[in-house]
Specification:
With 229 residues, the chain is an alpha+beta fold. The protein has four helices and 16 strands.
């Protein structure tokens, strides 16, 4: 592990991976319509869910949806707004069977030994915007009209999106005064800068790992995911 940490320190990767948009904290978030959610009725498009429907959660099994926030955003021409430009997550980047878009402040639960080293827990929630550059994740506007859906539960939960991606859902509260440090420790929600540092470490580790594996038919290991130094 010290080897790749040294490589990270000596390489310009952190500067090269500077995000084009400012980071935002994980908050209300939002998932674009068309994304499938694991529910008591099977895999359902998120826009088809209603209050009272049951969704499969990461820690508490099937839980009823107590509120659903729906919003339509019309994107204007010109420079993208950093608060509304969605994050595109390619197929298989985070165990998702299909590509999907989420809002930049959508929390994503990830598992990493690096998080365990730094935070004492391998599972942490990061804002989607902090994942830019990891396995092809990037900002991308799919169209000019965005249909955003935010399911909420009685407490903070994590739900399954497109098979294996883990989306964080905050319980109904005054989101204008949302303070992750004041919430119960159901999930460890990282601040944007801490989350970005973790993601850069994850990219660096995969890059070093990929270049040390024997060459196969597809190149060095998971080269399609690795950001090469």
């Amino acid at each position: 592990m010290l080897d790749w940490l040294l490589k990270r320190k000596l390489s310009p990767m952190a500067e090269a991976l500077a995000t084009e948009y400012p980071l935002v904290a994980a908050g209300q978030g939002g998932i674009l319509s068309g994304t499938h959610v694991a529910s008591h009725l099977g895999w359902r498009p998120i826009e088809a869910l209603a209050v009272g429907d049951m969704a499969l959660t990461f820690d508490h099994g099937m839980q009823p949806i107590v509120d659903i926030h729906r919003e339509t955003l019309l994107l204007t021409s010109g420079a993208p707004n950093p608060l509304t430009c969605p994050v595109y997550i390619p197929q298989d980047a985070l165990n998702n069977r299909a590509p999907l878009w989420v809002m930049p402040n959508q929390g994503i639960l990830i598992e990493s030994d690096l998080a365990c080293d730094g935070q004492g827990d391998p599972f942490v929630v990061v804002p989607a915007c902090a994942l830019e550059g990891y396995r092809g994740i990037r900002r991308a506007e799919p169209e000019t009209r965005l249909e955003i859906v935010v399911p909420r539960f009685a407490q903070d939960e994590v739900i399954y999106l497109e098979a294996g991606l883990l989306g964080f859902s905050v319980s109904p509260r005054d989101l204008l005064s949302f303070d992750t440090s004041a919430q119960p420790d159901l999930y460890r929600v990282l601040q944007p800068e801490t989350a970005r540092e973790l993601v850069i470490d994850m990219i660096t580790e995969e890059s070093v790992w990929a270049t040390t594996l024997p060459m196969g038919p597809g190149g060095h290991g998971a080269a399609e995911y690795a950001a090469m130094v």
